[in-house]
Amino acid sequence: MTQSRSVCTYAVIPAAGESRRMGQPKLLLPYGDSTVIDQVLRTWITPLVTRVIVVVRGNDAPLQARCQQYDVDVVWLPETTCDMKASVKAGLDYIEHRYQPISSDRWLLAPADMPLLEPSTLECVLSAADARPERMIVATYQGRRGHPLLIPWQFLPAIRALGQDQGIRDLLDRHGVDSVACQDPHILDDLDTREDYERLLGHANRVGTE
Questions:
Q1: Distance CA 99, CA 82 (A)
Q2: Residue 106 pLDDT more than 80?
Q3: Domains annotated on the chain, with CATH
Q4: Mean pLDDT across the stretch 122-134?
Q5: Is 3 a residue whose pLDDT tops 70?
Q6: Strands (E), 110-171
């Protein structure tokens, strides 16, 4: 008798932006004893996640090299784009061809500029998904949606069917998403401006002195 395998969980981390508002590559900015992207990957590399897929620009050699220091899959996006959907699709295409997921598998999405996400938040979202395996799940804080977002693999055809002017939000509106309340305000944070970065460093300094 063939034994069924456990559910696989993939993480897609879009990291192909150009950091235009920051004015310099934000994912390589110093954070603690390393960089922003180091902090992000350390959170995502966990037994809860089967594989982490980071999507970067093909011409961003420094970020590629940094990511390749970790046990993650780095996918090169051949063309520069500000469309996160293009990065997501590249990551999903890679997962499909490399790992051949089945419909009961799922994937998590969060931008690469969210270094303060707490591991407990991943646990919160995955626990909700275990209870509702056919539903999309999104983390919320005080009623506001943030990241990560979990999507069952069975929604891949619907994602590919999105129009050029449609994004993941349209997918959620069309098929519905269940919210799970998490005690992590950082699900709402991202890193776009110098002010965001200064606030990030302030948080790191406070944590370091506790």
A1: 27
A2: yes
A3: 9-209 (3.90.550.10)
A4: 96
A5: no
A6: 137-141, 144-152
